[in-house]
């Protein structure tokens, strides 16, 4: 398989995943079935870049995030992180690599230990990876809290004393404590109130500008992704169906599913009533059962432009910067090359911003 | 009450539910903790009224109170809830129960959890029909199949025999709607009915609700935190913050010309199409918890325009800022001491 992403190859790739596959078996004994949670996903993230992974629940977004970090073992495919083949690493070597790749989860209430003070939670990764002395770690925890916009005084408190937005800041402080080059953010703002959401997103943008960290931003909220991500990958039933620079994918979506997804986002504009886009919304709301997909396109039962070929022949992603997996789009080269590579800050983690 | 006279002039449609100055709270050893502070709203037949706000603002408590289903230890401490002129608070619990499920019904966010996993969906739709309408088993089953067709579930007769776990989230929400509509209610209270659903499914459910609402001339009280959803389906919208309605008016007017800094902040927090920069609007700080509301205006601690002496010393009342045009006299009200001085940008 060729290099998946022309766009990311232009700048230095932090992470390249090729052909990621995860199978689960379900069903009773004697009636075992294997279900593809993720099949053949290629992704690449450049340094200082944000790649959003969007799709409906059950599309395999979170599984991809966990496969990339090798929190769960892929059944097939390779993950190259900063030039290292993550899948071949021994447990101890993987552990040494862990500080470079971190994760922020959706629910900060359950991702922080309720019995630990905030400062201890923030400094825990440093302790685990044996970085610095106890005094260093304490000082660093204070700095990190300040960096995410919290008073260092919060370090003495417990998670129950903080609000959701504050806790998510703590989770982010903990994620950046080891100066990672990649953070997988799994729905980091989905549980937050609208007025708080912007605060956290702005914080993530600021941290990226200051440190050059890359994000894989898993989200179902397209209006956030549109403004937050440099590139976006749309997943459906475990596969990437469209990927490209955010402005291309949102401006000229090519896959029927991307079209349907974008048309369904409730907008607060009143200019145009959405009757003309109604045709894009699939009439059926159920996905094909994994067993029914077979070799064909997984979206064919909901697709308004499905044809006979889609029943038997699963489309592959086209090449180029804006890639689509759909027979209707064909092998045409799409989109424009990215104008410039993402922001590359000169100094990584040079002081607090 | 000036609001009352304004109200009476409004559109001819019959008022289904009128909640007036409703206050709810609970008793603590050291005193009373308020949850709702004189909340008033009305829902008319054939009208979708949106109740928006962040978590903890009192949206759900308002709707539960309106259904007479406040959980312990919450108590109504003042105000009135009327359904078609009958005072719900003065009624005996038996009568309220008769009202519920027949004339007023409710759907919730988590449809799968609201359905009983041990019964087929057909049986669950038939249950209110047998209890409230006294139908026979066979009659109720027939009607259940019709209702499944009404909510656009394909192969309804077959699906009536399915169990909840065999259906997707969107299908379960359709079943919940079918149950809610079983006894042809006049008012439907929908508490975040599409929040747990994927956007494409959400769109279908919203379209279904709009269709049914038109066909049945149903009044809907739609509770949500999603401004996009509100803009799409609500005729009127009330914005809640820290136990109060801070602004209320026709949806489009409210979005185009917000008069309360909180509404304005919320609207600015929604990432808009066409704005390409990576900055997101937000409101500094976080929602104060019940019992820790500031004196005077509840929003003043997060407001960009507070003024000492006007916003902090006395409770701010909900005032009419625009009575609406003669064709559709729906008043626009706001709870802000400085609303006439502020020019807040809305949706263009």
How would you characterize the overall build of this protein?
Chain A is of the alpha/beta class and 353 residues long. Chain A has a domain at 109-179. In chain A, 31% of the residues lie in helices and 20% in strands. Chain A contains 13 helices and 11 strands. In chain A, helix 6 (134-147) packs across helix 7. Chain B has an 8-stranded mixed sheet with strand order 6-7-8-3-9-10-12-11, sandwiched between helices. Chain B has helices at 2-9, 59-66, 93-99, 111-114, 121-133, 137-150, 156-159, 169-181, 199-216, 227-233, 251-256, 261-269; strands at residues 15-28, 31-44, 48-52, 75-83, 86-87, 104-107, 187-191, 219-224, 236-241, 244-250, 319-322, 332-334. Chain B contains 12 helices and 12 strands. Helix content of chain B is 32%, strand content 23%. The chains are: A alpha/beta (353), B alpha/beta (348). Chain A binds chain B through residues 56-57, 163-166, 193-199, 201-202, 205, 220, 222-224, 226-228, 247, 260-261, 263-270, 274, 278, 281-282, 284-286, and chain B through 54-55, 154, 168-171, 198-204, 206-207, 225-232, 252, 255-256, 265-267, 269-273, 275-284, 286-287, 302, 347.
């Amino acid at each position: 398989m060729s290099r998946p992403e022309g766009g990311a190859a232009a700048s230095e790739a932090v992470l390249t995943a090729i052909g990621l596959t995860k199978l689960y078996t379900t069903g009773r004994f004697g009636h075992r079935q294997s279900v593809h949670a993720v099949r053949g996903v290629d992704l690449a993230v450049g340094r200082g870049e944000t790649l959003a992974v969007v799709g409906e629940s059950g599309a395999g977004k979170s599984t991809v995030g966990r496969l990339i970090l090798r929190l769960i073992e892929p059944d097939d495919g390779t993950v190259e992180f900063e030039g290292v083949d993550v899948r071949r690493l021994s447990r101890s070597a993987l552990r040494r690599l862990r500080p470079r790749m971190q994760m922020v989860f959706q629910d900060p209430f359950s991702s922080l230990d309720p019995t630990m003070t905030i400062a201890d939670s923030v400094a825990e990764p440093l302790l685990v990876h044996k970085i610095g002395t106890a005094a260093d770690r304490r000082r660093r925890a204070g700095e990190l809290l300040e960096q995410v916009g919290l008073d260092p005084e919060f370090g003495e408190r417990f998670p129950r004393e903080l609000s959701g937005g504050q806790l998510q800041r703590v989770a982010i402080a903990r994620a950046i404590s080891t100066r990672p080059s990649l953070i997988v953010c799994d729905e980091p703002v989905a549980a937050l109130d609208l007025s708080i959401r912007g605060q956290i997103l702005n914080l993530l943008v600021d941290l990226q500008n200051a440190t050059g960290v890359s994000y894989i931003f898993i989200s179902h909220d397209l209006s956030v992704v549109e403004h937050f991500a440099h590139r976006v990958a749309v997943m459906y039933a475990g596969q990437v169906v469209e990927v490209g620079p955010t402005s291309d994918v949102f401006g000229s979506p090519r896959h029927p599913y991307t079209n349907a997804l974008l048309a369904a986002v409730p907008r607060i504009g009143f200019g145009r009533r959405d009757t003309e886009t109604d045709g894009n919304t699939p009439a059926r709301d159920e996905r094909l059962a994994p067993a029914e997909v077979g070799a064909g396109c997984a979206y064919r039962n909901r697709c308004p432009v499905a044809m006979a070929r889609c029943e038997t022949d699963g489309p592959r992603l086209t090449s180029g910067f804006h890639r689509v997996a759909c027979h209707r789009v064909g092998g045409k080269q799409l989109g424009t090359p990215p104008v410039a590579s993402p922001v590359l800050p000169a100094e990584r983690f040079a002081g607090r911003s | 009450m000036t609001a009352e006279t304004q109200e009476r002039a409004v559109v001819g449609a019959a008022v289904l539910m009128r909640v007036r100055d409703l206050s709810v709270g609970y008793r603590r050893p050291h005193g009373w903790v308020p949850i709702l502070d004189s909340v008033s709203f009305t829902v008319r037949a054939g009208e979708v009224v949106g109740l928006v706000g962040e978590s903890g603002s009192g949206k759900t408590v308002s709707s539960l109170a309106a259904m007479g289903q406040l959980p312990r230890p919450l108590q109504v401490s003042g105000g009135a809830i009327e359904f078609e002129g009958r005072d719900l608070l003065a009624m005996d619990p038996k009568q309220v129960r008769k009202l519920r499920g027949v004339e007023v019904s409710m759907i919730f966010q988590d449809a799968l959890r609201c359905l009983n996993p041990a019964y087929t969906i057909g049986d669950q739709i038939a249950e209110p029909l047998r209890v409230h309408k006294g139908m026979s088993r066979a009659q109720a089953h027939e009607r259940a199949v019709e209702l499944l067709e009404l909510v656009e579930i394909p192969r309804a007769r077959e699906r009536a025999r399915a169990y909840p776990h065999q259906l997707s989230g969107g299908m379960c929400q359709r079943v919940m709607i079918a149950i809610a509509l079983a006894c042809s209610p006049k008012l439907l209270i929908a508490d975040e009915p599409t929040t747990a659903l994927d956007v494409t499914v959400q769109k279908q459910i919203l379209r279904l609700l709009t269709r049914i609402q038109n066909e049945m001339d149903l009044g809907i009280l739609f509770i949500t935190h999603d401004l996009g959803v509100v803009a799409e389906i609500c005729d009127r919208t009330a914005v809640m913050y820290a136990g109060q309605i801070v602004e209320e008016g026709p949806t489009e007017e409210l979005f185009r010309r917000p008069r309360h800094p909180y509404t304005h902040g919320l609207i600015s927090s929604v990432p808009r199409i066409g704005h390409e920069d990576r900055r997101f609007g937000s409101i500094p700080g976080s929602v104060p918890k019940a019992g820790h509301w500031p004196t005077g205006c509840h929003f003043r601690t997060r407001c960009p325009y507070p003024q000492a002496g006007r916003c902090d010393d006395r409770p701010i009342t909900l005032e009419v800022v625009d009575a609406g045009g003669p064709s559709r006299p729906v008043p626009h009200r706001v709870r802000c001491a400085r609303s006439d001085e502020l020019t807040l940008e809305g949706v263009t």
